[in-house]
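I hope you will forgive my troubling you with a question about protein structure. I am sending you one protein, given as its amino acid sequence and as whole-number tokens for its backbone shapes. Thank you for your consideration; the sequence and its tokens are set out here:
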Amino acid sequence: MKPVLVLVGRPNVGKSTLFNRLTKTRDALVADFPGLTRDRHYGNGRMGDRPFLVVDTGGFEPTARDGIMVEMAQQAEQAIAEADVLVFIVDGRAGLTAHDREIAARLRRVGKPLVLAVNKAEGMRREIVAAEFHELGLGDIHVISSAHGEGVRNLVDHCLEPFPQDPQDEDDVRGPKIAVAGRPNVGKSTLINALLGEERVIAFDQAGTTRDAISIPFQRGGKEYTLIDTAGLRRKGRVFESIEKFSVIKTVQAIEQSNVCVLVLDATQEVSDQDAHIGGFIVESGRALVLVVNKWDAVDSYRREIFKREIARKLGFLGFARQLYISALEGQGVSGIFGAVDAAYAAAMIKLPTPRLTRALQAAVEKQAPPKHGLFRPKMRYAHQGGMNPPVIVIHGSALEHIADSYRRFLERSFLETFKLQGTPLRVQFRTAHNPFAAREK
């Protein structure tokens, strides 16, 4: 389970700069879901071989009473609740402010691991910069420059120190790992109980914090599965209101841990941008997918036809996934989900021999050759498999760096159709052969 680092502080102390450095991107907005302010961002970070999730919050105003600052404070409070470690960032050049004292007092009451980072310290003596911040009584102080990367490695290493070096316990679980994802109130909890066959107390809680997604191993028809629940703990006979509280962190964790995602839509509502965002993250993560439309019994034939058109228009990029129409409450169509999950899992984990891949590549090129680049046309010689979940096809040849993304997508569709892979995305990578005479030609 990836630790969650949440960056907190007043406005303009360099939180977003540190976020971009940790995620190695200049585009801070990694996951954009309606209902979240634009100042709350989620991303994947890695320091050496240590992966983690990092959350950037807007300027934190604990005492805000009205306006946009209230919304930003609410978003920060939500991120704080999801954190494993809080990184409190202050401005070393501005010095300690009354606002910093208010935030420190609020964070101390949370009772979570708290690390103080004094930012913007480039070109300054560390002990002098840190001196006045000892007043906050938050323990060791990390003096950093998020813009220049100074001290950032030590800061992250300190934050990750309490967590296991290789938290891969979930990989020991046999069978497909299934994540149920979707917007609030689409029926995820009802579907989870229907898949398990009962409303039950969780049998197994994957090691991690209480804010992590929950792993539930179970058997059906002699096959083993693991359900990764983004909804939270369920109690026999009732479902807590907190189940329907949308948590980006839980959804991201569940998707990344899974082999197959079940994306749940609500037939009584329109297909929303939020559905598209969640589907987009599933595709970016390379996970196999089953698209489940719930509450199908609650709509008439006219609404059903309209909803199918909305899926085609707004979720066309999920065309590789099988679509199922169910009623989780009534149990209608739920059993078919397991067959779709098994098929998607088999497609995601398939092993494709090099000769078959090369023949499929040749057939695709004969059907549609890559466009010329100048006087020359890229040449693709052979293909082999470079990974699974999702399947990765590596194509070798010459001048392949000039192949357009549109042709890459054509090849991806061609491989999916040739090998009848339903339910999984597929990646195509190019490897251009080195020209030993390139130096002589100059």
Remarks:
- Residues 27-39, 167-172, 199-212, 232-246 have pLDDT under 50 and may be disordered.
- The longest helix spans residues 68-82.
- The longest strand covers residues 379-387.
